[in-house]
Amino acid sequence: MPSVPIASGDLTKRICRAKKIPREALRKFGMREETRNGKPVIRVDAYNCYGDVHSYFDMTDYGKGLNAPGEGSSGMFFPGRLPQPGETWYIVEGLKDAAALTELGYLACGTPGNHVPAKHARLFKDVNVVLVPDLDKAGFFDGKDKSGSNLFGTANSIKVARLPGPRPEIPLSSFAYAKREEVLIE
After folding, report:
1. Highest taxon of the source (predicted)?
2. Mean pLDDT (the chain, rounded)
3. Where are the domains of the chain?
4. 180 φ, ψ to 5°?
5. pTM for the whole thing?
6. How many Cβ atoms sit within 10 Å of the Cβ of residue 133?
């Protein structure tokens, strides 16, 4: 189900402002305005383990994002293209942080949870990977280890970067929204 980015209305402005996501960066992820259960949402593409858009993720201005209904509907978030051998890609938790790094000029994608699912590791064959986990326990301790394990032997290299400072409650998207370019410590 290919997408055509069309979002430009008030909903897009509200959600991008509320979620601290630059609109232009989010467009790269296939952003479009849709409705879900009669309510307006911004929908973005979700990629399966073969690199195909197979599903979607909805964002609202009234709560957390929602995967498409049904088993197996979650997926990775890519900015309109997949990693190529030899490139360096930053992998973060979720769509917001992926869009934030993309806005800063990085090749970045988001996971559907706190780690790269094993079935998606094939998309990073011979790619230089930089994991940027959230600073909470699930991301920094569990997620980075699981991602590293899943990518080992597939990715060309695996590094871990972290946000500066000890405060896990400040998401990466907040740094990018403020246009701070010295975001990562590798």
Report:
1. Bacteria
2. 83
3. 10-177
4. -80, 115
5. 0.83
6. 28
